[in-house]
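Summary of Year 1 activities. Much of the first year was spent building the evaluation harness for sequence design. The harness presents a backbone, in tokenized form, and records the residue chosen at every position. We chose the following record to illustrate the format because it has been used consistently in internal testing since the harness was completed.
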């Protein structure tokens, strides 16, 4: 390379650095960071949408179907997502039993025995081993 090309590249590089420093003020980086934070918050809100205080749900539903219980929150979240995609209103409760934390995946919103039996059969056909809970018992 000739001296003129090297000098020209250095001047262009310096110009780009000064331009980004004075005119852009790194707003692009801040925008990327704020976008990432928003996406993380959306993901957290989505995950938290599965967790409920079950005592507050008893009045909304006479029948509850428990699908499964896991020691791993990841497994319970995966199952709740799968149920949501299948059209069920799934939720997760956290319970400590014998010094172990158990995450129970359940379906609510069932107001009659007939509807509950139908959903129960559908869930069995999907390969689950659900348990039907009446009037909030065995929460």
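For this record, the design step produced the sequence shown next.
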């Amino acid at each position: 390379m000739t001296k003129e090309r090297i000098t020209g590249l250095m001047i262009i590089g310096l110009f780009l650095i000064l331009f980004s420093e004075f005119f852009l003020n790194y707003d692009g980086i801040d925008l990327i960071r704020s976008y990432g934070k928003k996406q993380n918050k959306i993901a957290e809100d989505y995950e938290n949408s599965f967790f409920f205080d079950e005592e507050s749900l008893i009045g909304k539903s006479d029948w509850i179907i428990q699908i499964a219980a896991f020691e791993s929150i990841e497994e319970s979240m995966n199952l709740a997502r799968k149920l949501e995609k299948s059209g069920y209103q799934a939720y997760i409760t956290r319970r400590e039993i014998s010094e172990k934390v158990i995450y129970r995946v359940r379906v609510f919103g069932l107001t009659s025995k007939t509807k509950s039996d139908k959903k129960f059969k559908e869930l069995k056909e999907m390969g689950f081993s659900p348990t039907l809970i009446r009037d909030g018992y065995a929460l």
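The chain has five helices and four strands. Quantitative recovery figures across the full test set are reported in Table 2.
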